[in-house]
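Thread amino acids onto this structure.
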């Protein structure tokens, strides 16, 4: 099997998130939308519909999120990557400072979804836990992210793995829905029992 071993920085460009100095202020007619930690969840698609619309402070030219890019949550206890995928519109989006913005270099044979999978499980997560900096609030330094070991298999293998990951995630979503329905039914049963007891 043809496998390429490299560092993450060998295959992606890494940009910092846009440097907001405080909370992102919502503006109805703002020029850009901001992707924040509240808009991402491991195993789910990015919640584009609830990204905050605002005007960008300062004169820094923003690195806009594009299809095929990824974001990596560098702060906090959950350091995960999320593939941008298809946003559904052409509005300009930027990543908040809590993220690193990753862009796969031209001619690199790796799918964004597969790269997110590599960063979110197994050896990469062990590496991030070991290398995280800070005592109270953990964070991943840019140099740490750049040096993340990556193994890239064939395109065919990546496609097969992406399909398997998707199937497992769908199973989990179905299981979560069944649990929610079960909890609802338990509450309904309890309510019915209470009503019966008041009638007797």
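Threaded sequence (200 positions):
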């Amino acid at each position: 099997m043809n496998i390429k071993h490299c560092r993450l920085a060998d295959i992606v460009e890494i940009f910092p998130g846009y440097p907001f100095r405080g909370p992102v202020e919502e503006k109805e007619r703002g020029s850009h939308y901001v992707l924040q930690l509240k808009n991402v969840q491991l195993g789910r698609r990015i919640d584009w519909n609830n990204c905050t619309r605002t005007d960008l402070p300062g004169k820094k030219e923003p690195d806009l999120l594009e299809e095929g890019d990824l974001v990596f949550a560098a702060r906090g206890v959950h350091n995960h990557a999320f593939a941008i995928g298809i946003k559904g519109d052409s509005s300009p989006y930027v990543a908040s400072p809590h993220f690193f913005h990753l862009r796969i270099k031209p001619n690199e044979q790796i799918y964004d979804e597969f790269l997110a999978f590599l960063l979110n499980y197994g050896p990469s997560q062990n590496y991030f836990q070991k290398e995280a900096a800070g005592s109270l609030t953990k964070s991943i330094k840019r140099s740490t992210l750049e040096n993340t070991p990556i193994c890239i298999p064939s395109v065919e293998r990546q496609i097969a793995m992406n399909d398997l990951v998707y199937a497992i995630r769908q199973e989990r979503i179905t299981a979560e829905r069944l649990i929610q329905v079960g909890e609802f039914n338990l509450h309904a049963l309890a309510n019915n029992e209470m009503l019966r007891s008041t009638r007797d």
